[in-house]
């Protein structure tokens, strides 16, 4: 669908020949922008509720820059995961040219620019140890970018569980809890036995040899005796942030 067709649809709505719902159904499947190295889906948020996000790992700095430039031009915002400082330098320049500010979260390697200004509801992001912070931060920044208010609770693993006591108020108020843990991956099960809140568990690749790059934590979370815990892939803080945001928005609507 080109600009001419879009104008025809809009003129038809203006003239009364097409109602708004029918026009929306036609526009929500608009085509992507073909950059050669990527087909950028500018209308994913219209269809899916979540905008397309750039996964920087495996892409050249030029690839990331081109895709980011396209997103900023069309949508005025972007989120990049697994990004480097060089990626941030490029994106920062692009954003400055459009009067926007980019933020680089170095621990998680995530870049955010032009996210939602209004933050709704509340989710809490917990992690077992300081080494799990990169994954937890990715989850928190993602949810915040999408428009969910977040609070972080770091270094409250099972070796010193009494540290969670001072955060009981946050756990009570939050609609969703994201719990990231490596090693034996026990924290989501422990938290699950202490609260009735929805829990999204994220295994991290932190740990010694038999942690098997996060597989031990993943298996522990999948086999939790606490019912109803959602489990993400290893180190997938981004996915956890998206899911938590979706659940949070549903709780606000109801």
Question: What this model shows, in words?
Answer:
There is one protein chain. The protein has 254 residues and is an alpha/beta fold. The chain has 2 domains: 31-113, no CATH class; 120-253, Rossmann fold (3-Layer(aba) Sandwich). The protein contains 10 helices and 11 strands. The strands form 3 sheets. A 5-stranded parallel beta sheet has the order 8-7-9-10-11. A 4-stranded mixed beta sheet has the order 3-4-6-5, sandwiched between helices. Helix 8 (187-192) links the parallel strand 9 (176-181) and strand 10. The radius of gyration is 20 Å and the shape is globular. The model has no long low-confidence stretch (mean pLDDT 90).
What are the key terms here?
254 residues, Rossmann fold, 2 domains, five-stranded parallel beta sheet, four-stranded mixed beta sheet, globular
Overview in brief:
With 254 residues, the chain is α/β, with parallel strands linked by helices.
Give a quick account of the main beta sheet: strands, pairing sense, barrel closure. 5 strands, parallel
Count of domains: 2
Overall spatial form: globular
Q: Give me the Rg, rounded.
A: 20 Å
Q: How many alpha or pi helices?
A: 10
CATH class (first level) name of the largest domain? Alpha Beta
- Strand order of the main beta sheet, please? 8-7-9-10-11
- Strand and helix order: HHEEHEHEHEEEHEHEHEHEH
Oligomeric state, counting identical vs distinct chains: single chain
End-to-end Cα distance: 36 Å
CATH level 3 topology of the largest domain: Rossmann fold
> How much helical structure, as a percent, in the residues?
40-55%
**DSSP, total strands:** 11
Strand content: 15-25%
Which structural class fits the helix and strand makeup?
alpha/beta
Uncertain segments: none
């Amino acid at each position: 669908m080109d600009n001419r067709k879009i104008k025809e649809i809009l003129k038809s709505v203006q003239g009364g020949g097409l109602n708004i719902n029918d026009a929306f159904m036609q526009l929500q499947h608009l085509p992507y922008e073909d950059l050669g190295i990527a087909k950028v889906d500018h209308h994913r948020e219209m269809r899916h509720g979540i905008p397309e996000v750039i996964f920087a790992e495996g892409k050249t700095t030029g690839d990331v820059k081109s895709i980011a430039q396209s997103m900023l031009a069309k949508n005025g915002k972007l989120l990049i995961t697994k990004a480097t400082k060089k990626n941030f330098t490029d994106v920062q320049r692009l954003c400055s040219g459009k009067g926007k500010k980019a933020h680089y979260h170095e621990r998680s390697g995530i870049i955010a620019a032009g996210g939602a200004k209004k933050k709704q509801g509340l989710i809490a992001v917990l992690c077992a140890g300081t080494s799990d912070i990169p994954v937890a931060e990715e989850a928190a920044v993602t949810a915040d970018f999408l428009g969910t208010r977040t609070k972080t609770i770091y270094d409250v693993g099972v070796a010193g569980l009494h540290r969670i006591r001072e955060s009981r108020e946050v756990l009570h108020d939050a609609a969703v809890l994201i719990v990231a843990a490596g090693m034996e991956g026990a924290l989501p099960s422990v938290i699950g036995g202490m609260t009735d809140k929805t829990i999204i568990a994220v295994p991290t690749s932190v740990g010694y040899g038999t942690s098997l790059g996060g597989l031990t934590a993943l298996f522990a979370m999948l086999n939790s005796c606490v019912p109803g815990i959602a489990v993400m892939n290893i180190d997938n803080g981004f996915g956890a942030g998206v899911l938590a945001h979706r659940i949070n928005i549903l709780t606000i609507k109801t």
